[in-house]
Amino acid sequence: MKNKTFLFFAAVMFLFTVDSCQHHYPVSLVEADSLVYSNPKAALQKLDSLSLCLDTTQKADVMYLRLLKMTAKDKLYMSFGTLDSVQSLVGYYEDNGDKQLLPRAYYMLGRMFVESEDVPSALAAYRKVLAQLEQHEDIRLRGITNAQLGEMFGRQEILSLALSFYKEAFLCDSLLADEVGMLYDMRDMGTSFDYLGMKDSANVCFRKALTKAREVKDDDMEHELLLHLANSYLDVNADSVAKYMFLVNDFELLDRCEEGCIKGAYLQMISRDKAADSVFTDILPQTTGALKLEILRRLVGLSCELESYEKAKKYVKAYLRLSDSLKIVGAKEQEAKGLALYDYTHQMERGNVLEIQNKNKQIALLIAAICLILLLLVLFAYWELSIVKKLRLQNRIKEWRLGALLKTKKEQNAEIYEQVGLASYVEAGNHLSQEGWLSLEESVENHYPGFKEKLYSCSKLSEHEFRVCLLIKAKVPTSKIALLTSRASSAISTTKQRLYKKLTSEQGSAEDLDKLLAILWLDEIGVFEMRIQMRMPF
After folding, report:
1. Of 118, 384, 401, 493, whose CA is between 20 and 30 Å from 139?
2. Total-model pTM
3. CA–CA separation, 111 vs 94, rounded Å?
4. By the 8 A CB rule, do 513 and 472 touch?
């Protein structure tokens, strides 16, 4: 009898213990939780009212309320706390709180590290989220965590990893039938494909996302996607650019700078150089970073096309200053990128993020980090040397300045024509004599000192190739070059293409060579050598 009584009480105590481990939250808190992702504003209002009447003796309820408030504020792009407050929340759930809520606490910790730009710590927190979700599955949290990881690796330009995370996020949102989430995932996948040079895949994602944006009536996203599609066709298909830009104009402009850059590039594609120059000049003061760099690059080419060489000089100098500053910033950020990536892959192999307690493994990680830092320092030193080399080149270029910059290009070309008598050869339909070639070379050298030296410093040219360059410098059309050299016009075009590749190590058209040689007279700013060093299109 005594044994039966003991077993009865033991069973009761066991059931009590099990029930106590499964805390029953107030219905109002659970209802607020259901609104956190779909309607964070309403959820926050509900949580604020609950704060006034919640039983503060129930710590589990209080911590749950704090977690929900942080989540709702984060969704509304509001400040959701301090690092200490988030870490205390994580500590509570790690020690004795509801383990099903622990991955959500880790997610908020990751968001806090993202806000403070602590990339390695943010990655570690998100990896903890995914590790915990293997025990407590939460498809929505898995989706948004993968989206966050995708964004972080995308910012660090580790695009293949970013794309894999975006794909995982899309899968999760598809299982939830989350139309808005799927829309953003397709946008992000398209952006990753675009940066990876996979234009066809990018456009498929952008078009699908555009259809989805119109279905959910998200005008802002529709505007953004139209800009993405227009941008993807720049320098490829002017009609497609015009098509998507026309649709963009139906919306209130959200980013005048990005739209302006695309408009300017489109105008440049259709040879409306003055209009393009006006657009770029208007938005230049409002831009920063890579977008400003792109606009300056295009303005250099446009200024040369419009023969505004003083402007070209100004833009080149601005381009070099900004390019150098961005490279310096990039070098400083590279350490964090490398450490974060190493930390991530290291933890992926072991399946337990940032919880490795073995001292030998910690030492190995530290040694690897130190080696990585040393490698980055070596690379940075190499980059510094390349900068010095570039500056030396620019100083050499300054020594090649023309004796008289007051004469216009057209006047100089007219003088060359007159001195050499090119017009008489063309009218007579004769090729240029040996004496004529010598006279042409001398005249070009007088007007453009160092012309031959600059050409041969880039590549060894044949006699025919050098003569073609002389005629191009004298602004002789392709058809007349063919006549003077006793060649077909098609052969001259082929020669021009070959010459462009020789001088720049890049593929280009006959027109590209004409533009290249046309700016060789800008000795003060070294446009030609800068183009060779920086691979900047004209």
Report:
1. 118
2. 0.53
3. 18
4. yes
